[in-house]
Each structure stands twice: as C-alpha cells, then as structure tokens.
Write a structure and sequence with these properties.
eight-stranded antiparallel barrel; Porin; three-stranded antiparallel beta sheet; mainly beta; 1 helix
Amino acid sequence: MKITLLALLATAALAAPAAAQSAGDMTLGLGLGIVSPKSDNGTLAGADATVNDSTRPTITFEYFLRDNLGLEVLGALPFKHSVYLNGGYAGETKQLPPTISLNYHFANASKFTPFVGLGVNYTKFFETSSPLGDLKIDDSFGVAVHLGADYALSDKAALRLDLRYAKIESDVSLNGADIGKVEIDPLVTGISYIIKF
C-alpha cells in the first residue's frame, strides 16, 4: 500500500506543471470587497447590536517569497457601517481593514488556480458618530483566513474571486462609559482584476 501511494505521488510530481507563480513575482489586484458582519454582533448597553454590510473598492499587492507562496497586503477605501440597537439606529462608523496574509497558490494544468491563506487583520475605526452621544469603537487585531481562486485571462492577468474571514471584536464606549463589546467577525467577498509583473 505504501509503495503504491509513493508511486502515485511520484507520478503526480513528475506530471505537475511549472509553478503558476515563481519566487520574486509580484501581483497587483484592483477590485471590490463586500464586508458582511455576522448576524449576531453582541450586546451594547443591554441591547442587541447589529452592524450592516458595506461595499468599497479594494487593492491588493502580493510578493512571492517562494514558488506559489506569496505575502499579500490588502487595502481598501474606508468601509462605512450603520450600527443598530434592538433595531433602532444608534450611529455609524467608518473603518479601514488592512490585512496581511501568507497565501499558498495550488499550481495545476487548468486556468483555475485555487489558493488558501492565513494572516492578521488590523481594523481602525474612525469618524464614529451617534445621536446618543460620544460613541467610540476601539481598534481591533485578529486572525484572518483567506481562500479563493484565480482564472487566468492571459499570462499576465487573471480574474479573482475570494472570500475572507476576519476576527474583529472591539470594546465600545458611550460618553466615556464602557457599554460592551461589538463582535463584527465579517465575511468579506471579493472580486478583482489581477495584474502580474
């Protein structure tokens, strides 16, 4: 059984195509990201919190440290979210979610190149306002998971569909008093045009 498995692995290795991305390659991605917070966003001041979705342009830069292994930085224009407590409007905020991920791209013989990644997200909240008073949402650090696939349009261009999960939990205060923790933990759906250079 072990000999058969080793033979299959050796055959697959010999049949594998050249690496889709080589060490030293770089890519630039321009697209759109939809931030969709999870449905239950915690409790603030004894009320159920809800944070709505937001869509904004995104940009990515990836540098390949080794064949098929890239270090990626994600940026975006500020996402804007409304916050509701027990269904009633409680304020709004903007956030920037720069994320660094280490992505592994699976080389294969087709035009589709799937990938998976793991990294860290930093979310900065700003321009937060509320009719209830001085609302503040602390910045957040958390793990980020990334998966998706590129469809090659040419040797230098691809269309990317991807999905990210980011752990975003922040302490919230109103007029200087702690009112709880908001748990956003969004899924981020993205589509982008990838340029290789």
